[in-house]
Amino acid sequence: MRDVAVVGFAQTPCVRETDGTTNGVEMLVPIFHEVLGGLGLTKSDIGFWCSGSSDYLAGRAFSFVSAVDAIGAFPPIMESHVEMDAAWALYEAWVKLQCGEVDTALVYGFGKSSAGQLRRVMAMQLDPYVVTPLWPDSLGLAGIQARMGIEDGLWSERAMAEVAARSRAAAMSNPLAQLSGPVSPEDLLDEPYVADPLRRHDCAPITDGASTVVLAAGDRARELCERPAWITGFEHRVDSPSFGTRDLTASPSAVAAGKAAGADGVEVAELHAPFTHQELLLSQALGLGDITVNPSGGVLAGNPMFTAGLSRIGEAARRVHDGTASKVLGHATSGPLLQQNLVCVMEGRD
Amino acid sequence: MPRPLSAPLDVGFDYTRSTGPTLGRFLSDLRRRKVTGIRGADGRVHVPPLEYDPVTAQRLTEFVDVASTGVVRGWSWIPEPLEGQPLDRPFAWALIQLDGADTSLLHAVDAGSPDRISTGARVRVRWRGDRVGAITDIECFELSDGPGDEPVEADDVTMVTTPVHLHYTHTASPTEDPFLRGLMEGRLLAQRCPACEKVYFPPRPACPTDGVPTTDAVELSDRGTITTFCVVNVPFLGQRIPPPYVSAYVLLDGADIPFLHLLLGVAPEDVRMGMRVEAVWKPREEWGPTMQNIDHFKPSGEPDAPFDSYSQHL
């Protein structure tokens, strides 16, 4: 295996609504400038580009092709795209680097959720014969999962509110967060249900945003970054899309991805958990114990669709870059109710 | 700065899908007021039926009749239903394990209020009157410990149609916005890239060569050159003009990117690359933020432009 590291990360502020287009160009141009400028690179130094986004979210065909304008793709570049969270684009780029074809890659994702009705758009990822025609909304489905865990004694509405309160407190140190500030779980529990047993604080906010991560291999990574976040494990696994056959209070795919990636011993984890109970479920599945989870506030503090998972990996890598941790974990999820899970373990070497 | 122009866009499409043997059986049986599952590799009965086992990926073929009554295994409460959902009054989403099944089906329960439903509650199917062979043939479930309805005769279905309607608000980019506002006044406003100095019409959010936002507005005349064209001979749905007619790429004087428009006032066999053209505008009272303000282009009568003048813009 080639040594490959995350060497750069940039993200836009997480906001409820931007003025820009749904092809993301206005959000991407400044963060490309920031991440490349920070590394002393220009676009011609990047060997491979890969993105994650969704046309259903954008409400237009081939939005990722329009997004390429933000790169300035002339002369022609080597480029690819996944219709998933950009964490999976990062996986594709990592494979590309493993193949030895290139030494650097820039990965990005973007989503303007405010353009449509996110709860309905998310129904498009469900089984098109027996589920989508009912238009289940993402909050309604997550509410079923949350109740099953509550009634099995795995978590409680109180524990869920504590996750939300901890997220918003942590996000006070994150200037790009959408939701932050001191709140008490008691006050949160006084709020009404939006999809009983879920209250608003249990659900990640609707967010517009974009983010980008730069990968580099071997000596190139050492040149670009004082303390690269070397990827020591990168795995993704999937459970059945037929969620009525699954035990929704467990996540076999997260367990398997965590084991394969070597999650043992991580000091900090950034989890892509769009609902409070899912953070509790994932912490358990990945065996995280009492370590620091979501010091950025996580997606409960800002959830730019199709790049929030990539941002988790970028946030985790930053803890290695700045020397505050030596082994970290970034997680991403995709599909309904934690169907697919990706784990990226990164380490600093002194 | 005022917010950029924005407008609603409603996207709709009726997805038609063939059902195949497994889902075809399930959906045909729903039409008959029957629910059918399939036995998995581990002996579990899956409802809805799966084509392949979720663990072993083995092809599944043994259909099993199950009841149209069952028990709620998990639920959430939707106080404000969204467009397209089974009920337009508050309802519960529930995973329902039908009697005889080992897995759960997602559907709506018409429970009235959240304090009337609980995990373990008995429910039965409320069938739609006009069944077509779709999951929506189950109108919803209702709280009841009574028996299910008797099946009836119906033909098989092999196709299912799912209408999808999504609603968006699209916003113009900061560079598209002055272009669209200019059109409302009959002005053609392009943008110049500060790096390569190319002039884009219509403007784009960023220069596709340099990846930087275009910053300088440039007003163009409504004259230009045909860079290339095609003669449309094929009729299609929504066509405005009877074929044959000419669609042409017009490079406005001073622009670096041509755009597609309609060319009239010349026989198709007389159209040439390099032909000089001018805009024919609609009456001013019909103008809006759209390129349709220009009804079409027509030959201007000027001598043809030399090839070198547009060879870099093909």
TrEMBL record, chain A:
Gene3D superfamilies tied to this protein: 3.40.47.10
InterPro entries recorded: Thiolase (IPR002155), Thiolase-like (IPR016039)
Recorded GO MF terms: acyltransferase activity, transferring groups other than amino-acyl groups
The protein, known as: Lipid-transfer protein
Organism listed in the record: Lentzea guizhouensis
Species classification: Bacteria, Bacillati, Actinomycetota, Actinomycetes, Pseudonocardiales
TrEMBL record, chain B:
Molecular function GO terms recorded: DNA binding
Source organism superkingdom: Bacteria
ChsH2 C-terminal OB-fold domain mapped to chain residues: 64-128, 218-282
Keyword DNA-binding on entry: yes
Keywords: DNA-binding
Region of interest (Disordered), ranges: 291-314
Coiled coil: none
Domain ChsH2 rubredoxin-like zinc ribbon: 182-213
PANTHER family on file: BLR3430 PROTEIN (PTHR34075:SF5)
Protein name: DNA-binding protein
Taxonomic placement: Bacteria, Bacillati, Actinomycetota, Actinomycetes, Pseudonocardiales
